[in-house]
Amino acid sequence: MGQLTWLQAEDTLGWRPRTLRRGRERYRLRGYDGLWDRRRQQPSPRCPIAEVARIARLYREQYAGFNAAHFHEIVQRDHAVTLGYTFVKRLLQTAGLLPKRRPRGRHRRRREPRPCFGELLHIDGSPHAWLALRPTEPDADPDHR
User: Fold this and answer.
1) For residues 49 and 35, what is the distance between their CA atoms, to the nearest angstrom?
2) Exposure string over 32-71, b if 16+ CB within 10 A, otherwise e
């Protein structure tokens, strides 16, 4: 428990494989300080790894079955989580702890056009040659009177 595969870590953090390998190497050499954003002299806002692990553990162990809004409200109030609702929701969805909602459909859907031009055309069953689909001459038709 607590071990992620490379693919799961990439999905959870939203990083590319090369960035993940470089971050792992910095973490191995310098620990948590290696993950600091050196330009801003503070931890990277995209990488609150300890907080992400804590939130996922809280949901798994104490709040399984809560929806995203209720869970976020409780961890903000009781566990001093400062991350935003959307970040927490996306974190739980990518970790497979919350289901992703299906997108809503349009209110009124247009009918798909027919694949063949003129498919809805009513074909006359009469023996008359006026219809282009029946080019026979009236004299050549034995049923014609």
Assistant:
1) 9
2) eeebeeeeeeebeeebbbebbeebbebbeeebeebebeeb
Q: Which pTM value belongs to this model?
A: 0.43
What 3-state class would DSSP assign to 135? coil
Q: Are 65 and 53 in contact (CB under 8 A)?
A: no
Entry field: residues in the chain? 145
pLDDT per position as a tens digit, 6-41: 778 777 777 788 888 888 888 788 776 677 666 666
The tens digit of pLDDT for each residue in 42-98 reads 555 665 778 888 999 999 999 988 999 999 999 999 998 888 898 889 888 888 889
Q: Which of 54, 27, 59, 57 is nearest to 43 (CA)?
A: 27
Q: Could you give the CA distance from residue 69 to residue 87 in angstroms, rounded to a whole number?
A: 12
Distance CA 53, CA 72 (A): 15
Phi-psi region of 2 (alpha: psi -120 to 50; beta: other; left: phi over 0): left
- Whether the CB-CB separation of 75 and 58 falls below 8 Å is answered with yes
Contacts by 35-39 with C-beta closer than 8 Å and gap 24+? Answer: none
